[in-house]
Structure formats: structure tokens, C-alpha cells
Amino acid sequence: MTEATMREQMGSTLQDLMDTDPRLAVVLADISTGYFERAAAAHPNRVIGVGIMEQTAVSLAAGLALEGFIPVVHSITPFVVERPFEQIKDDFCYQRLGGNFISTGASYDYGTDGMTHYGMGDVPILRTLPGMEIVVPGTPREFDVLFRAAYADGAPTYFRLAAQANAADRPVSFGQLEVVRRGSRACVVAVGPMLDRVIEAVKDLHVTILYCTTVAPFDAETLRAEALRGEAAPGASVILVEPYYEATLVPEIVAALKPRAVRVEAIGVPRRIVSHYGSASEHDADLGLDASGIRARIEAFLGVARA
């Protein structure tokens, strides 16, 4: 198990960077203030709490960016993505400003709080914004690596944190897919914290596994090289396993492999209202996103007879 949660790692990473980078500023909306106590004491002018006003937080962050700062806005997933979506679109993307948006609680870590706190639509929504970078780490350490690589690159960047994490860190790089293993029957793209359950689901199947922690920009080159391995490959079979609404990355997969034919099985949170309450693991089991549910979908797609 990892020693810290992604949320704890966020606080540690940002406080460390604030000590060395005077451009970094954090805007909070009454969420995770305890993780920034040291930074607030050391840099009181660069840790700003605005109360429960997420639209204001994003617009304030844009003002900081215009003044040369590198802002970070943090809140629960739907609060930092859905409520201030207009501000992210107009104040950051339209103005071509760099900044960072870090969520916590995706997709249904707040599984007993209902739709107001669910965040399965965050990545699909943000993918509509030109120039938006989207990062989905699978462990706390991976967040640290990816944030340090991208936070000052001049683009609006979203970091999606969740309570669930993979057991081991991978050698991740911003903007790149990692080849976990190679096989011949299909290519499985596992996004962020879905990797461990994908590995369990396909442990005896001869498939390639690609690990994705940067959703946008998507690494089309590696996917194409692995899914179409060999010049004689007529097409590809790709299985996409995502922790947010299913089929979000299908357009990127199709575009990466054109003009070759491609069969895609999209596994993710079903695009329907989730009205039950429970833990994230209970939701996963109910929605077929645990290892056994993923296995069943892959077997059906590949035509594998169940034991």
C-alpha cells in the first residue's frame, strides 16, 4: 500500500514547491485547508481562501496568472470542474493562461453524499476545452512526478485525484503511455487507478497493457505502435478502461489508429444516473468496474469462453 493518500501527497508536493518557486499560489474554497497550514504560515500571501465560491476562486486564479503567478485551484471534483466550468473556459482557455486545477473525490469517493458530490463527468467535460491538459495519476507518488513535470508548462492543467490507488508506483512520464506488457490478442488502455484491476482481470490473457496517466494530450504515437504492431496488422482491437464516464477516450483511439480499422470496447462508469449510496468499492462492484466485472466484459469482447 502507498504511504500517503493522493490528497496528502498534493499538500506535501505543493508546500515543497512553494518553498522554492515564488510564482506558485494556491486558491482554496474551504476544502483541504489542513494540508496547507505550513505553506500558509510560510507564505501567507500565496495561500488564499475564498470560502465556498468556486467560480470566484477560478477567476481570482486567472487574475493571479495575469500577474505572473502560477495558480493552483483545489476543491472536490464537481466543485472545481462543473460549477466553475464557464470560468475555466473563458478566464483560462480563452485567455490562454496557464494554471492548475486539482480535484479530490473522483468519481464517487463521496459515495454517500449523492449526485452533488459525484464527479464522473469531469474528464469528459474538460476534454471539450481546446488546450486543456488532463492528468489522472494512479498513485500519490505518480501525482508528485506528474505535477512537477507539468505545473509550470503554461497550459491549463487538471489533476484528478481519487482515494483509490494502485498498489505500486510506475515510471510515469507526462504525456506518455507506459507499456506494462505486450500480447497479441488486444491492446488494453488502463487509465490511472484502473491499472491494478486491469492487470488482475487479464492475468492469463495474451494482451498488451498500456498505462495512461496523461489523458490530454493523448499519446497517439505509442498507442499506434503497440496496437498495430507489425506492418501486416490489418486493424486493432482496443479495450479502454477508464475511471470516469465510459468511452471518453474513444475519439482519441480512433484518431490515433486511422485509417486502419479498429474495434473498441469502452469500459467505464455507465452514462446513467447513479442513485445508490455506498463506498467507492461498492459502486465499482455494482457498476462492473471491479476486476471480475472488467474480466467479464473483456471475455465477451474477445470471445473467451468462461471457465
List the helices and strands and how they pair.
Layout: H1 6-20, E1 24-28, H2 37-42, E2 47-49, H3 54-66, E3 70-76, H4 77-81, H5 85-93, E4 99-104, H6 122-126, E5 133-135, H7 140-150, E6 156-160, E7 178-181, E8 187-191, H8 195-201, E9 208-212, E10 214-216, H9 220-227, E11 235-245, H10 250-257, E12 261-269, H11 280-287, H12 291-302
Parallel strand pairs: 1-2, 1-3, 3-4, 4-6, 5-6, 8-9, 8-11, 11-12
Antiparallel strand pairs: 5-10, 7-9
Helix pairs in contact: 1-7, 3-5, 8-12, 9-10
Short description:
The chain has helices at residues 6-20, 37-42, 54-66, 77-81, 85-93, 122-126, 140-150, 195-201, 220-227, 250-257, 280-287, 291-302, and strands at 24-28, 47-49, 70-76, 99-104, 133-135, 156-160, 178-181, 187-191, 208-212, 214-216, 235-245, 261-269. With 307 residues, it is an alpha/beta fold. The protein folds into 2 domains: 6-160, Thiamin diphosphate (ThDP)-binding fold, Pyr/PP domains (Rossmann fold); 178-302, Rossmann fold.
